[in-house]
User: Fold these one by one.
Assistant:
Number 1:
Amino acid sequence: MTFMPPSASPISADERRSRIQALAAQLQAQGLAALLVGPTASLRYFTGLDWHPSERLTGALIHADGRLEYVCPRFELDKVSAVMSGETAVAGEVLTWEEDESPYALVAGRVPAGGRLAVDDQAATFIWLGLARALGAERLVDGGPLIVALRRIKSPAEIALLTRAKAITLEVHRRAHAWLKEGVLTSEVKRFIDAEHRALGGEGGSWFCLVSFGDDTCLPHGGEGDRALKVDDVVLIDTGTLIDGYHSDITRTYVFGEPTPEFRRVWEHEKQAQALAFEAAQIGATCESVDAAARDYLTGLGYGPDYRLPGLPHRTGHGVGLDIHEAPNLVRGDRTVLAPGMCFSNEPMLVIPGRFGVRLEDHFYMGEAGPVWFTTPQHSLDDPFGAEAAG
């Protein structure tokens, strides 16, 4: 049967304009003159301009009255103007600076006398320092809370893009599982996954593809070597792709051969921990309570406690959207209240040092009535894609 991913349309310019207006209202409410957005995912979120960071400032100045101004080097004017004129981008005045001029003085000149400027928290430190010299550090404010408050709630269009991305990656996982053979190198699996992501319409997966065999699966981010697959090896593959900038990030763990009784037992513990985290993710609950649901269950089985091994060495999940890891997170100390539109990974990994690790990772979003899976969790250890293929 031919795989057909769910459809999704790019984010429209109208939706981006509504985001800018929502931000402007927050700026007014907090008495801030403007927000400077650096060359980060937030620049794409608000304007549609996707710009890679460099030592030169390219970004956007969003004013409290809703005006949008781009800031870029003069030699990039034509490129920025071309992107800005696209159907899904938002137009605005472009402020340029020459190589012997200061972009920070340019930005400072656009802020009213005595006005305070919020700064994108993901922008490079040199941008903050340059603005501090030009404007005065006392007039700078952390813009992270303003941005996170908007970006953490996904619109239906964003949910659709995330759904498409994750469906594609799950199909790539299924194909990789069927393709594995004895002796294949982790690098070869990564190339296969990259090609399959591209074939299905996603961006290549080589930029984000973790393939681990055997005891390398003990390491949450994998080993350093290019290992060959052996019969009865544990296999852990964590990969994703991008659709219009929105991320997938799915992990599957199984055995290339016959699982040991110990591995089978730990795998079942992992699956139950993931299920309990999902059940705990209810509207009005806190992010940290979801982490506690998985961690308390594992502690009751003798793992841990806390982040100790054998056990769960990291948070239960992270937010996801235009960044693969974004706030809020399912972790102790994050008391963000779960609300419709929030999206998270669910991956309470179990690590048995020197032997193996098990991570089952799927994502969910908060619907009006509670959590909704983007992808069906792994069916079973022996038939990893049985339920998913049937669905």
Note: The radius of gyration is 23 Å.
Number 2:
Amino acid sequence: MAWLRRRATLLILLLGLLAVSVTPVVAASPIDQTDGFYVNPNSSPATWARNNSGDERATRIQSEIGSQPIARWFGDSSDIGGAVADYVGKANSHDKLPVLVAYNLPGRDACGGHSGGGAGSVGAYREWIASFAAGIGNRPAVVVLEPDALGDFSCMDDTAIQERLDMLRYATEKFVEKSPNTWVYLDGGNAGWVAPETMADRLDAAGVRGTRGFAVNVSNYYTTDSSVNYANSINTALGYSAQFVVDTSRNGNGSNGEWCNPGGRKLGVPPQVGGEAEMLLWVKTPGNSDGECGIAPDTPAGQFDPDLAIRLIDGT
């Protein structure tokens, strides 16, 4: 009988070891792993202020915008993995949390038209986003995934929409696989664009349940309150409480219904953890043009314009 007791004891020990071996490893929060957000010294407003120190606007632009933690946008690159790794490495060396934007879907900004471009094919995008995620690796980071991607359906056919959803789901899987300490937020549009029930369906189809959550108001002007209400409505439609972040970079005066360089807008509250959302972030770079439109008709999308920056500082 003694040998039976020994076998039973060994079996219990073996089962205990197996239970330990299959316990999932939960990644630590990237916020808890770092000491504040990373401020990019080479953001477009910081670079402009540094290169134009004799301009009377430079000090204000640097103080109000260039010194803030602003997300860095990454598009097509021959070495996206290296570019991302370099940026995240610099943030990591200062114990700071970088915020990145992945913006390279084929046919991006398909309906708006001002920021067109992106990868040349589905295969090219898959390779690009896998390299992007690998560039982050195990280091802590926040990624906003493909602004406008789920709102920009009106000029796309069913095949193109399904391809886009498949690419976004693939992207979410690559971040889980290759960058486990990254919080990824799928872009969820803004309060004036797509009904929350429709956006919830699109987010679900794009794989939001495999991410940290979603982002709202990216590159737009809706107030934080209206953006939070919109995000909460999306969560109601989703049927669970996904985390969300709000872009507050230019929402200080709210929206006047225009999205492309409208006048009278203002900087919003600086980036922070909390604030009715998981985080309030500056995803869009204040002073970077939305396109050749509005109060900057001669400034291409993505190009820094000091006059736009000053008007956002002053709210004019």
Note: Confidence is low (pLDDT under 50) at residues 1-26.
